[in-house]
């Protein structure tokens, strides 16, 4: 099978496109229903965007690190460099525009106001969670190598994380906003003023450090599927007549694994609710299952059937996914400098809010199209 990266780029492009739309509605009070997150328990289509992104990172890791036979110094340095780079980009995005745009007190000096501004900035975020998850998953994958051992590691992390939630929970329960231990760990490690307060004003970070263990599980699922693709291609190059390594057979395997993962997620949800904010074990397998099904569908359409034109725009987004995400954040935060408010013009109803989200994503696409034509790809 050729151009395996193309299917992955397109899946990443679809993911980052909808991420731009979900993060930039015309009005936060009038969000188009399919672009809403579940409040706490449950999973909407929008709740699948984030794990798809981490799943794609895991798939790409399998391609990127396939040349390493063992977990050596070179592999670790590459893993560490990429993880630190992603984390720092996320942190800088949180800090943008890098100075307070309004003074807390006119009687204070600039540096006093600046220190106060820094004291309330959030440390974690989407890219920071991806960086930590990528690093943990990379260490495990490069150390264990074998798919069966990696699957055992995924199970062990799920048991460990769920055990921590259950063992140290308070009323009203381990999987509730008020009772989960994760928010207390967030505050202890980061400080209350540096975590997210968007859930009823409580200090709970949906991208907190503890949940990165489960983000790593999602990344490892992607690594397993990526390794399956790489291994199938290598064996097919040696034996072109091998039926078990033909693209169609491989797609069927990925699809079957996706259905099994979905079923496992649904089964676990009987005891462990599907929750994106907690990144629960059931959510790992449920979202991972959809990721596998989506990738199998794209490989079938693009690499087997040769249907590429409908996905061309998403390829542009996917090959510069990091730039798309950062650019969307910078643009949204820069509105304050020109006094623009999307809610003023697109906040009357959910349909107008959706129109703005589409316009915003289109603007990002047009900028990336220029980069694509100039063969400029920003990667870490």
Report on this model:
Helices cover 64% and strands 0% of the residues. The model has no long low-confidence stretch (mean pLDDT 92). It has helices at residues 4-23, 49-64, 73-95, 110-119, 126-144, 147-167, 182-190, 212-238, 247-268, 281-304, 312-318, 321-338, 342-346, 350-373. Helix 1 packs across helix 10, helix 1 (4-23) packs parallel to helix 12 (321-338) and helix 3 (73-95) runs antiparallel to helix 5 (126-144).
Please give the count of helices. Answer: 14
Strand content: under 5%
| Cα-atom radius of gyration | 21 Å
Residue windows where pLDDT falls under 50 for at least 5 positions: none
Q: What about the largest sheet?
A: none
Structural class: mainly alpha
Q: Could you report the average pLDDT, rounded to the nearest whole number?
A: 92
Write down the overall geometry: globular
Topology pattern, helix = H, strand = E: HHHHHHHHHHHHHH
Question: Which range best describes the helical content: under 10%, 10-25%, 25-40%, 40-55%, 55-70% or over 70%?
Answer: 55-70%
Count of individual beta strands:
0
> Whole-Å distance between the termini?
27 Å
Which tags fit this structure?
380 residues; mainly alpha
Give the SSE layout.
Layout: H1 4-23, H2 49-64, H3 73-95, H4 110-119, H5 126-144, H6 147-167, H7 182-190, H8 212-238, H9 247-268, H10 281-304, H11 312-318, H12 321-338, H13 342-346, H14 350-373
Helix pairs in contact: 1-2, 1-10, 1-11, 1-12, 1-14, 2-5, 2-8, 2-10, 3-5, 5-8, 6-8, 8-10, 9-10, 12-14
């Amino acid at each position: 099978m050729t151009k395996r990266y193309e299917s992955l780029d397109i899946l990443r492009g679809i993911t980052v496109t909808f991420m731009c739309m979900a993060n930039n509605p015309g009005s936060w009070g009038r969000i188009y229903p399919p672009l809403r997150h579940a409040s706490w328990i449950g999973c909407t289509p929008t709740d699948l965007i984030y794990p798809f992104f981490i799943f794609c990172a895991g798939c790409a890791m399998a391609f990127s690190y396939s040349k390493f036979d063992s977990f050596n110094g070179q592999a670790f340095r590459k893993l560490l460099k990429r993880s630190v780079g992603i984390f720092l980009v996320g942190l800088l995005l949180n800090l943008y525009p890098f100075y307070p745009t309004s003074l807390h007190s006119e009687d204070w000096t600039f540096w006093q106001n600046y220190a106060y501004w820094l004291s309330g900035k959030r440390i974690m975020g989407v890219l920071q969670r991806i960086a930590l998850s990528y690093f943990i998953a990379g260490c495990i994958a490069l150390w264990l190598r074998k798919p069966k051992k990696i699957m055992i590691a995924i199970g062990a992390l799920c048991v460990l994380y769920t055990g921590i939630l259950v063992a140290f929970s308070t009323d009203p329960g381990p999987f509730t906003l008020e009772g989960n231990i994760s928010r207390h760990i967030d505050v202890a490690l980061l400080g209350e003023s540096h975590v997210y307060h968007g859930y009823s004003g409580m200090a709970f970070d949906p991208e907190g450090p503890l949940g990165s263990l489960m983000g790593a599980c999602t990344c490892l699922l992607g690594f397993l599927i990526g390794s399956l693709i790489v291994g199938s291609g290598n064996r097919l190059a040696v034996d072109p007549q091998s039926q078990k390594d033909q693209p169609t057979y491989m797609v069927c395997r990925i699809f079957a694994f996706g259905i099994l993962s979905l079923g496992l997620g649904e089964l676990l949800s009987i005891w462990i609710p599907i929750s994106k904010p907690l990144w629960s074990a059931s959510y790992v397998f449920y979202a991972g299952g959809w990721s596998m099904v989506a990738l199998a569908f794209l490989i079938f359409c693009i690499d087997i059937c040769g249907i590429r034109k409908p996905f061309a725009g998403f390829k542009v987004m996917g090959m510069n996914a990091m730039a798309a995400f950062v650019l969307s954040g910078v643009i949204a935060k820069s509105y304050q400098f020109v006094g623009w408010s999307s809610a003023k013009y697109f906040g009357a109803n959910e349909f107008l809010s959706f129109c703005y989200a589409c316009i915003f994503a289109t603007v990002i696409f047009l900028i990336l199209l220029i980069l694509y034509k100039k063969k400029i790809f920003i990667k870490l």
